[in-house]
Every structure is written in C-alpha cells, then in structure tokens.
From TrEMBL:
Gene Ontology biological-process annotations: carbohydrate metabolic process
InterPro entries in the record: 6-hairpin_glycosidase_sf (IPR008928)
Protein name listed in UniProt: Uncharacterized protein
Amino acid sequence: VAFAELSCCVVMLLSRPYVGFAVSLSLSSKVGSNHSSVGRRVLSLSFGRVCALGVFSLPFRAGSANNNQMASSFHSSISPSPSDGSCRFLTGQERYADQLLTDFAERTGLTSAARPAKRYLWTDSFALCTYIGLYKRSGHQKYLDSARHLVDQVHSVLGRHRIDDDERTGWISGLSEEEGSLHPTIGGLRIGKEKNERKPHEPANERDEWHQDGQYFHYLTKWMRALQILSRVTGDDKYLTWALELAKAADEAFVYGYQGSWGPHQGKKRMYWKMSIDLTRPLVKSMGQHDPLDGYVTAKLLIDASTRGKSSKVPSTMEHVLKDYTDMVAPTQSFVTTDALGIGGLLLDAYTLLQVMLEEDAQHSENWMLKHVVKKILKSVHTSLGMYGSMGELSYDAESRLAFRELGLSIGVHALEGIECLLKEKKWADSDFHREVEQNTFNLSRYIPMADHVESFWMIDEHQQCTTWKDHLDINSVMLAATLVPDGCIDIS
C-alpha cells in the first residue's frame, strides 16, 4: 500500500528593489519502509513565523517570464516513476535531479562505455548520496544499482595509481590485485585532478597545485560518510568496512605531532591539507580550518554506525582516530568563515552530530565534548551567515558566482531544517542543552529561504550558460541535484 503526502509552503518576501517569491512544493511517497522526510521538513516551517522574520531579504532579481516559468515548472510538475505498476512518484524537482545525474553519468563514463571513466572524489561523493536520496524517496532499484556501480568505479579508478604514471601501477595500497579489490580504500583515494602530482624534486607552485593530483582529507571524509550511508541503506557491511579502513589510512597519513620547539603549536597535533597519492609525503603542509572538525564528526559517525552493524563492535583503531581529532577541536579553535561552502558544511556537521546523539542516547550521558561542539558550530554559523550576507554575493550576476559553493550552503540550510524537525520531535534530557540549541536554531531560521533562492537561481537555463557554470559543469550539476534531493546527503541513515 502506498500513499502520497502533498505539502506546500508559500513564502512571500518583499523588499526594495527586489522581490522575493519562494515556493516549495514537495510530494513524498511511502512504500514499505522507504519514505521521504521532505514534506515533514517543509511543514516544519511556520508560514507566520517566516513572514515575521522579514528582517532577512532575499536578493531576488525579477527574471524573464520564460526563465521564471522554467524554474517553477520543475517545482510543481509531477510524474509517475517507475513503470512497474507501483504507486511511486517523483516530483518535477526530483525528475530534474534525476536528469542532472543521468547527464553526469553519461559525461563521466559511468554509464557510457564509449567514454573513459572520469572520476572526481568530491563530486562522486555527492552523486552517491543523491542516488541514495532518490532511492529512499522512490523505492526505485535503479538508483541503488547506480550507487553501487559508482562506488565500484570510484574505487577501481581513484584507488589505483594514474594511468599516465610511468613508474607505478596497481592499487595505491600496494596490495595484490585480489587483495586490493577486497580492501580498495586501505591506501586512500586520489582526488582525481587532471594533472599528475608534483614530483618530490619539483618546487611547489601554488597555482599548479590546484590542478595536480594527490589526496585531500576533506574529500576522503565526504566519501567515508557516503559509504556508511550506503551501508545502512543496503544492509551491506562491506561499505562500512571500507569507510573504516579509509578513516584509519587518513588519520595515519594526515595527522602528525608538531615537533617544533617553540610557537603556539608546540607539542600539539596538526594536520596536513594535501598528501601525495601514496600518502608518503605532504604536498601542502598547512592545515584546513575545518579539517579537524570534519575528522571528529566523521569518526563519531563511523563509531556510531559500527555499533549498529552486524558485529556491533567498534574497531579499536577508531577510538584512537577519534581522540586525535578531539584533541585538535580545541575550545579556542574558530569555525567562523565567510565561505558559503564552508558554512554549509558546518550546518551539516551540526545536524550529523545531533542525529548521532539521538542514536547513542547521548542525552542520558555526560558527553560534554559533543554538546560543546554542536553549540559552538551553531554559534559560529550565526556569525558566519551574518558576515556572508553582508557581502552581498547572492545579488551578483551568474558570471561572478561559483554555483557549487552556494549549492553547498543550500544543502547545509536543508540540514538546518532537519535540526528544526529533531527539536520538535525529540526532547533532550539536558533541558539547558535543548533550550540553547533551540534558540540558536531559531536565530538561524531567517536564513532558511536562502536555499530556495540559490536553487531557483541555478535552475534557470540562462545562468547555466555562463562560464563559471560550464567550467565546473560536473560538480555544479551534481551539487544542484544534491540540494534538490537533500535526504541522501544530510540524513545519516
């Protein structure tokens, strides 16, 4: 028996000289245990409360009638899916996401044997989560099959040395072909850049480094997260095992003890930002602002997932991994940023930790560190969004904007909606913690319409013809699909 729940939330925001009009229409279907939480999230936005928060004005520019009609049509059209006779539906917005992924898979050789496999770990992480999101909403097996196929191809390509490497072949880990196929992530995964990594004897060049291969820690954590979500959805623990092996490899390679005899970092653990393909030498020694936090959140997530696996046992190495990142997420470390993508990542981290807390029943424990991190993230996001909003980037023309960074923020805003739902559905035993998170979330709620603005802006065909969209076509289109179907990215199960 299947049923569909239709929810519609219309928000009018007026400000001179812009007019903001955001319409969010979602159709969620439930077939057996698969259901979408989008309708629930949309309804969590009180129409009266959002209108009362008119202090935030979206910088919508009135577009042409054709462009506005095109964008809104994807929000409202509904078509049946699939053709097997079951009562499953995709909204027009979800169909658009499906088409974006279909084109992406064709371009990058995932579904076309005529094209070479072109894998890029960050983009593929979001594609994997979006396939999962579409599967959870529709129950259509093809999305789960695509997710599994993508994982296999990513590991086969990025888990091996480059084909243009004259000196090295096979798995990065150095394992035999058979062993490597069983443990494809144990040596890490390449970024997937177009150029080979810098050789040991070559001098560093900042401009060239952006285009050269290696391994990024924050790309690896995105893939770990995607693998554990796939493990939960499929019930196949091999994906969780691969995530855990990747976590161990990343911790051993990227984290180091600072050996200097002076300075603020004396005797403390630090992280490299970029490592060589084989994880034997740092390519960029500076530490990413949010890398320790990424490590902490991902370690908590994987430990929680391990307790729910078939073995129900946390690998001893993960306790050590968690301690490494806990030591670096110091009370004095700042999370504040004006980068849209970074802000979105912070919101996703906060929602992830709150979900983990509920699964661990942490509200009945004294996990002060976890609570401290959640509160600090939300306060940092409030400061960050205030600074970002004052910069006015969302009022720029398309040629002056980077879609994937804004779409990362949009995904984070959907995570904020998820936090609102958690607060309404669950009550922490620590009433002070619940009240503080609730207040911080309320302070952020005026920014929720940002997601509709960003999504609508980049769905307009004219904006997708600009250079900044075409130059980053794969990552832009996949992250647009991800924010249109955010369930797979933001929910941990």
